[in-house]
Design brief:
Shape: globular
Number of helices: 8
CATH architecture of the largest domain: 3-Layer(bba) Sandwich
Helix content: 25-40%
CATH topology of the largest domain: FAD/NAD(P)-binding domain
Structural class: alpha/beta
Largest sheet: 8 strands, mixed
Order of helices and strands: EHEEHHEHEHEEHEEEEEEEEHEEEH
Bound molecules: glycine
CATH superfamily of the largest domain: FAD/NAD(P)-binding domain
Number of strands: 18
CATH class of the largest domain: Alpha Beta
Length: about 375
């Protein structure tokens, strides 16, 4: 069997998480190789919207995830300039708006919850919402303004990471891990002291020698739209309980995202496209004027408690960096920092709860 040797670390998966982990590890002086089954960002990273939006993502009962997401948001403010390049980083904040009275009730409760957690979120009346965002429907029932919500273009982040000169082996999936490194489906062995599993929803199963982790695919469909250059659709990240719309500032508009339990299915469906357009039209009627340029479906890696899976497991040379659920882009810098610490024997950021076997019942296959 041919063998490549001499690496400190092999990172399995060249999505955003894998690339950022590899970059941070290389910055610490480790020799790193990425192995990717297809091509960089072939999974969730290539479909993601890129929201850095911890406040409007906050859900009842997910306070630990919220704390992590807030820390991650803070990390982004240094990560983006350090990474460099035009990431289409927009910082105008988010408006989470009510399309009807039911939404308004639900959002009032959510707003009280946000305030109880000390989050910066302001309730706006319908006319205040429309003053901030004139394209909103006159039927808008008010909403929550979260001033620090942001977004980036995930593919621009991928491009910036790829420009760091990382060594990447593509088109050959990892078949097995062992104490010496990984074996690819082609039979090639790559030896490395430590292995980082950052293969998104494909991390949970199918690699021999790893414990089966409960990471499952959570399908999201997302639409690509285009507006005339001189007519922004919305200044802020616009959300409702059923969709989000973000204007990249250069004519591209993103409308997402469905949440579907469909296994590894990545088909774009009429139902998905229809529901997203309907949800956007409720609050931003001008969306019907835009050019429809495409629709895609991606698979978020989800865990039973929606928290990411970051940390060491048996076999002892394996570090996990997956399970980022709806927050993969947001959690990229903090995950990479945590993994770099784990690789070098340091301390992971306090907001990251390192994986322990008690969290899920796991066993090596
Ligand atoms: N972060 C948005 C989504 O997962 O759809």
């Amino acid at each position: 069997m041919p063998e490549r040797s001499g690496h400190d670390v092999v990172v399995v998966g060249a999505g955003l998480i894998g690339l950022a982990c590899a970059w941070r590890a290389a910055q610490r002086g480790l020799s790193v190789i990425l192995v990717e089954a297809k091509e960089p960002a072939a999974g969730a990273s290539g479909v993601a919207a890129g929201m850095l939006a911890p406040v409007t993502e906050a859900e009842f009962g997910e306070e630990e995830l919220l704390r992590l997401n807030l820390e991650a948001h803070a990390r982004w403010q240094e990560f983006a300039p350090e990474l460099g390049g035009d990431l289409h980083h927009r910082r105008e904040g988010a408006l989470l708006v009510a399309a009807d009275r039911d939404d308004a009730e639900a959002l009032h409760r959510l707003h009280s919850f946000q305030l109880s957690l000390g989050l910066e979120a302001e309730w706006l009346t319908p006319s205040e919402c429309r003053r901030r965002e004139p394209g909103l429907s006159p039927r808008c029932g008010g909403g929550i303004f979260a001033p620090h919500e942001q977004h980036v273009d995930p593919m621009a982040v991928v491009a910036a990471l790829l420009a760091k000169g990382l060594e990447i082996r593509t088109g050959d999936p990892v078949a097995a891990v062992d104490p010496h490194g990984v074996r690819l489906r082609s039979g090639e062995a790559i030896t490395a002291e430590q292995i980082v599993i950052a293969a998104g929803c494909w991390s949970g199963s199918g690699i021999e020698g790893l414990p089966g982790m409960p990471v499952r695919p959570l399908k999201g469909q997302i639409l690509a739209l285009r507006r005339p250059p001189d007519r922004p659709l919305a200044e802020h990240l616009i959300r409702t309980p059923r969709c989000y719309v973000l204007d990249r500032g250069d004519g591209r508009v993103v409308l997402g995202g469905t949440m579907e339990e469909r296994g590894f299915d990545t088909q774009v469906t009429v139902d998905g496209v229809y529901r997203l357009l309907e949800a956007a039209y409720e609050v931003l009627p001008d969306v019907t004027e835009l050019e429809f340029t495409g629709a895609r479906a991606g698979l978020r890696p989800a865990t039973p408690d929606n928290l990411p899976l970051i940390g060491r497991s048996e076999p002892g040379n394996v570090i996990w960096a997956t399970g980022h659920y709806r927050n993969g882009v947001l959690l990229t810098p903090i995950t990479a920092e945590a993994v770099a610490e784990l690789l070098t024997g340091g301390e992971v950021p306090a907001a990251v709860r390192p994986f322990s076997p008690e969290r899920f019942a796991v066993g090596v296959r």
